[in-house]
Each structure stands twice: as structure tokens, then as C-alpha cells.
Amino acid sequence: MAQPTNEALKSLHIAGGGASESEQSIQTIHSKVLPYLQRIFHSHAGRDDSWTSSQASRFIQSVQQNEYASRHADAFLSHLTVTFNHFLAYMTSPDSSITRPAAPCDLSSPLAHYFISSSHNTYLTGNQLSSDSTTQAYTDVLLRGCRCVEVDVWDGVESDGETSSSTSDAGDANRKSVRSNTSGSRKTKFSALKEKLSGSLASRLEKTSLSKKSDEKTSASTPEVAGTAKDHSQHQSREIVDDQEDFLEDSDVCTAEPRVLHGHTLTKEVSFRNVCHAIRDSAFAVTDLPLIVSLEVHCSPCQQEMMVKIMQEAWRGLLVEAPESSPDSLPSPEKLRGKILIKVKHVATGASTALVDEPGSAEDDAPTAGAAVSKQRKPSKIIHELSKLGVYTQAVSFKAWTQEEATMTTHIFSLSEKKFLEHQDKHGESLFEHNKHYLMRVYPSGLRISSSNLSPPAFWGSGAQVVALNWQQTDEGMMLNEGMFAGTGGYVLKPQSYTGRKPSENIAHRKDMSLSITFLAAQSIPLPLGDKSAKGFHPYVKTEVHAEANNYKSDVNDGLGHERSYKARTRTHHGCDVDLEGEEVTFPDIERVLEQLTFVRFTVRDDELGRDDLAAWACVRLDRLGQGYRFIHLLDAKGAVTKGVILVKVEWSTS
């Protein structure tokens, strides 16, 4: 099994699938927690207030149900007489984490048999409309265990202040370009963006909180914004949009290098070369399992030639080589260790170029009838030299489950969450059968302008391997992603019935489960972001069970796909160190769960008027959920590791 190999990752640990909390230990025990540990020890001790080695062994096997050997267990069992201090050393070791280590993963199956930790619009640092693009974003997600990153590439733009050799994000962000040449009379970013979008999307943007905040800030100081949309739209197309919507002709000479940004928005750019260098430097820093680079290409042919040259230079020796003949099956992660796979539009044999669809725009954001029609953009053509770099990940536009490319071994379909859910409802079995053998990528709706995420279990449940998320957000989607991939190297083998190894079985090994969690005490709970004092902090713990429920016959579609969620919470307490008084939450009968696609998520929130701010969280896949007395190691609202822990007793069973 490929585990993170860089010790620095442990100190950097941010949620996403890098180091697991099962690797963490506790340095000190607070007075709120200590009495519960003493009671646990004394309840199993003899008259001399100590344990024998056999009693310690029974505790590990019967109470904690730890079946695996570890150096911490060996040290615990090495004493003829086990004292409370010996017990305390064991309970504060990684062996007592609520997350058990992920089982060793067989990496010899084809790529399509794995769930792969994946990022959407990796370059962005914030929202989808106006945030910065940086190379650091790539470094961060790769150090967090991500194995599929996305790069949106656009033609470079010439200007007096622009060069093609910038080596820093600051240089890229400060370039003077047609897109970023602002003036005092221009509208705010959001007002300009509304003019730039079609009428349908502009009206939707108008309803968002981002738009409202922008309007509130500028309404008093910029009354001229009320001018006609037509006049300002023409001004915008001259000043901002032309370089993104009109592609260079084949005869144009390329002097500027390609750039990376979120097209048709006001996000800032970064150079494609610098992105490639950042990927090279961190691609295999924490695992040597293969990295997929998903390219969205909006460039002219000559700029695509430059892209090919840059990638071949930056990733020399890392790019996967094409096989001598067409493969009958995809290679395994084991055979692709240390290699970069490029996902790019497939050019059919005999063709020199292929047209590129605009992912997300047509299916998510199409204007309604009667809406203003935006300027039509010429489709990009992918040249053969670029397309042939997509060896095992050849992007094909989805048209029908019966299209010729749907059985091409190396194809990968990309669907927005909206389209995916439509197919899940109407063609669920076809979707599921396809994903047993071939790759599929799913990405968040283009209307998630705040960079919120879809809930991945619904998509994993239909076999999608590459469920791309906005890693700059710490929300339910990223928490569940952490539950799936923490400590795995970014590749998780699907359940057997999801891989085609047993074609007669669609859904197998489903069981009914019962879960009980007793909350004993907590220490060092981090405060919500922005809070400075624990005096006004009133935490409670919310427990949610997320169970995939894809049976292809469900009439329920709440926007999160086929997923069931069960919730319970504790009483409200006060402060960062809390006696939780043995409060129990139970989930007595949850039917037909698949352990590999069921997650237990804990969130600590501040009980206050209005929205209860997130303070801390943890998420565990059910088949890795420890039994007995366990510590929940808490991540903060940004997903960073903290010293916060909650002592609980966990009891769960399936039948």
C-alpha cells in the first residue's frame, strides 16, 4: 500500500487525503478527560489496582477490537504488571484513534477499479468569479494527497508589461493584460461580470450573496453603474472579453505563453509554465502513485504547440509513454507509479484536430428561452501533438451510452453533477455498468460560484472514479473526501461488485447497521475562525451518518444524489475543555449500507443565534471506524490538524 512518504506532511496535515488522523498521538491529558480514563482503567483492574498482561490483551481484542499488531500494543503488552501510566501511554497513542488504519490496498487492478482523490479548478484560491489563480494551490493539494488536478489553459496575451518568463505568482498576478487593465470608471467586478454573462446567468448571479454584498458596497459610491447593459457590454467586450472569446487564427505567431485562469470570469491568471513547474515539484512528494493532470484547453493551435513543449520540458521522464498497441484494459496504479497521465481531448485516428466542448457551460448554465444571447465563441481545436499525450485518459464528449467511443478502453467521460444525476435517475444501470470498466470524471455545477461542493458518496455510489471537488472549501464534500482518502495515497479500491470482477452482482454485501456513540469529554477544541476567546464559545457535537443509497429506483433527488443522511447532536456546553457527561447518541437501524461507502461525520459547532459556526470536525469511513474507547482527533474549520480531541465510546455492528 502506498502511504505518504514525506515526514513534513504530518506537520502540514490539512484535510484532503494525506496523512491519516490514525497516525496522531496525544501529548497531554486535560483534567476534564483524565477522570474518564481512570474510571475505564479501574473498571477492568483487579484488587491491586493493576492489570495483568492477559487483561491488557483482552482489553485490546475485546473492548477495542484491535486485531492488528502495532509497536504501541507490543509495548503495552510487554509489562507483566500493567499500571495506569502504561494504560495512559497506550490510550494516547495512535492505536486509540477513532480512525483505524486503512487496510492494505491491492494496486494491481486497472485504473477504473479505483476511487481517485481529485480536485476541480485547482488553480483557484477562492470563489469561481473573482479569486486569484496561483501555483501554490497546486502545491497545497498535492501535499494533501490529491491525485488528479485540473488546469484551464487560455491563450497568452501580449502587452507592454507582460513577459513569458515570470517565475512567481506575484509576477503573474501583476501582469498588465487586456483582461486586467482596469480604470476608475469601470464597474465593480461583480457588476462587470453580470454584464458579461448571458441574461439568464446574470439574473442568477443577482440572487447570490456574493452579488448582494458587492452591490451593497458600491451602490452609494458608483451611481453611474445604472447605465444601459448594452452600452457597457460593448465596452466590456472591447476591454475584457475579446482575448478570451476570440481564439487566434492558425497563422498567428505565438510570442506570449499560455496562461491559466477560469475563463469568462474576472479571476486572476498564472502562467502555464509556472503551473507545470509547481506540479513537477510536488507531484510525488507524498506518494508515488500516478497523478492525472486534467487539461481544459481553450488555446489556439500555436499556443497548444507551446503547451506541448512546456509540458515535455517540465515533466521530462515523468510522462507516461504510449504502448506499442491499443490496450485491452487500463494499466494499474502499480504499473504507473511515478508517472503523470494527461487527460486531454481525444483526436480520432486520421483526424488532425478535434473540437472541444465547453465543459459545464452548455449543460449547467445555458440561457433560458428569451434571455439575452451572449457572444458566440469559436470552439477550440485540439491538435494531434497535444491529443496524443492523453495516453490512458483520452477525454471524449458524452453523447450516448451506445456511442462508439463508450467502449474505447482509454476514454474518459466528464459530466457535471447535474448531468450525472439525470443519468443516475434515468439510466442508472448503464451508468453503473460503464463505470465498472471505464473512467468517468464528475465536477461541481458551474452555478456553485462560492466554490461549494457536491456530496461525493452519491457519485462514488454509481462508480465514478474521479469526483472533483473545490479543495479551497472545507465543507461537507471535502470532509467526506477526507473520510474516503485519508492515509491511502489517493487511490482506494472500489467494492468488488463495482469493478466487474463479479458481473452477476450489481449491489452486494449490503448490511443493516446499528451505531451508538457515548461522548465522555473533550479538550482543546479549536474556536471557530475569527473567534479569539473561549468565553462566548458554546460547543455541541453533531454526528451524521452518510449512507450511499444508489439502487437505481429511488424517486428522491435532493440535489445531493442518492444519499441518505442520519443526524443527532449533543447538548450545548461551554468552553474548549468540556465534560460531555456520557451523553449517548444512537442510530439503531440503518438499512442496507455498504461499509466502504458509508461515513460517520462529526462536527463541533458554536451554538449561537442564527448560523452555528463550524469550530472543528472529523470524518471516518465506516469500515475504518474503531470500536471501544477512542479519541476523535479534530481538524479546524480550515481543515488543519489541531490538538483538539474528544473521548468517546463507540459501539457498532452490522447484520
Automatic annotation (TrEMBL):
Domain PI-PLC Y-box: 386-496
UniProt catalytic activity: a 1,2-diacyl-sn-glycero-3-phospho-(1D-myo-inositol-4,5-bisphosphate) + H2O = 1D-myo-inositol 1,4,5-trisphosphate + a 1,2-diacyl-sn-glycerol + H(+)
Entry's EC annotation: 3.1.4.11
Compositional bias per record (Basic and acidic residues), positions renumbered to this chain: 204-218, 229-238
Residues annotated as domain C2: 495-636
SUPFAM superfamilies: C2 domain (Calcium/lipid-binding domain, CaLB), PLC-like phosphodiesterases
GO biological process: lipid catabolic process; phosphatidylinositol-mediated signaling; release of sequestered calcium ion into cytosol
Keyword Iron: no
Region described as Disordered: spans on this chain: 158-191, 204-238
GO molecular function: phosphatidylinositol-4,5-bisphosphate phospholipase C activity
Biased composition (Low complexity): 162-171
Residue ranges that the Swiss-Prot or TrEMBL entry lists as coiled coil: none
Key words of the record: Hydrolase, Lipid degradation, Lipid metabolism, Transducer
Protein's job: The production of the second messenger molecules diacylglycerol (DAG) and inositol 1,4,5-trisphosphate (IP3) is mediated by activated phosphatidylinositol-specific phospholipase C enzymes.
Protein name: Phosphoinositide phospholipase C
Organism listed in the record: Hirsutella minnesotensis 3608
Lineage per the UniProt record: Eukaryota, Fungi, Dikarya, Ascomycota, Pezizomycotina
